[in-house]
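I'd like us to work through together how a protein chain folds, taking it slowly. To get us started, please write out a protein record for me. Go ahead whenever you are ready, and we will take it from there:
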Amino acid sequence: MKKSLLTLALCAATFAPATAQDLPTGKYVSFAPIEMYGMEVPMMGAFHKVSPNGKWAIGSDDSGMIGWSFIYSVSDDRLTTLEDPSMTEKYYIVADVANDGTMVGAYTNDAGELVPGIRKSAESEWEPLPVPAEHMPAHSSATAFSSARCVSADGSVIAGHLRMSDYMLHPVLWVNGELKEFPNEGATGQGFYVYDMTEDGSIIVGMNNAENGGQNPAYLKDGIVVNIVDCDDEATLTFNGGIINSIDAEGNMYGYWQNDEGIMQALIYNESDGLQWIEDAGMQVASCSDGTHVFGMASAMYGPACVLVNDEVKSLSDVYNIDGVDGMVTVTDCTADGSVVVGGEMTAIDGLGIVNTPTLFLVDGNSAGIESGAVKNDVSIQLTGANLFVTGLYDRVEVFATTGTKLASSSIQGAPISLAGTPAGTYIVKVTTGKDVKTFKICK
């Protein structure tokens, strides 16, 4: 779940790149070939999500009728494949990961059914999530199948979609392991495909299949599906359409739209300001935001990925001084402080053609123009509007006025702290991690 759009209010220098040495630096990560089908081939697939604390990145290779998945430990620089890609005849997909490495997605059970599931670690087995009696498990990835799709930072809330007896996909929540079915008034066609949610699951974003077969970028709130752009509408009639890929804590949604001519256009939407098109044709898909940048894909086919900064679309190499960063075809997710950005690139393999391979880059120091004030356990803070976010593992967060009065506190990992109602001014934030306490100063 993303944390902001294009502005923030930390007491830090703003990001204004001028020369290469002024750009944020870091490391671009690609992976060694693996053994598959008796030969050595590049690691295939793409990263889908990164955990809010930046410790885990997950992905899958779901390009065929079988699929397999992987998880990357950022701190250990270790990539673990969760299934043997040359042996499995089943289908697995990891869609999201919580701060502790808990993964959610879909897997083929012993009965040959594709079902939504949860996996606590790379060493554990898949566990099924509860489904209602009307659930219709698929037996092939070629069919719309049920899946858990996103998880909160602490792992307590999971959103996904279930294929039911009416053959439509219905969005659902699992809260602390308990199924909470969602009314979905306004869902059409094959139903609603979940892509992301707010931290508490109150808003779910993704794609609502149109009656004509197109894809409506849409969101679900209060049980009602809202099409941001409608394939069935006379003014926007198309058999293509698009998707909302992600939503941040302020309700900003990021996605794209494709018309009948195949022209793709990135979009940002929130309920207050409505629909904003990213007019520069250089950015065709908006995937996510890290607080100052909106990441996406430069072309419908081959990229490279690009980034929107101050309403201007730029290449990644214009924004980051990191070798290899322009190898990314598309960015799929990023942490709130911009320190970890994940996605994929394309590689040619003899006999197989062009395939996706997972990649990511790690930004050192002042990531995305934010003076993060990193401390032990990689803790950093970010103020977005009236919400304070803490990235990393911590025990307690406390917010004080300069007079010493405590204004807010929280011990819930990953949950935003609201400063709504407090006046503009300077505040002190204390983050406790074990025996260590780090003090930050923020401006509101």
Remarks:
- Confidence is low (pLDDT under 50) at residues 1-21, 366-377.
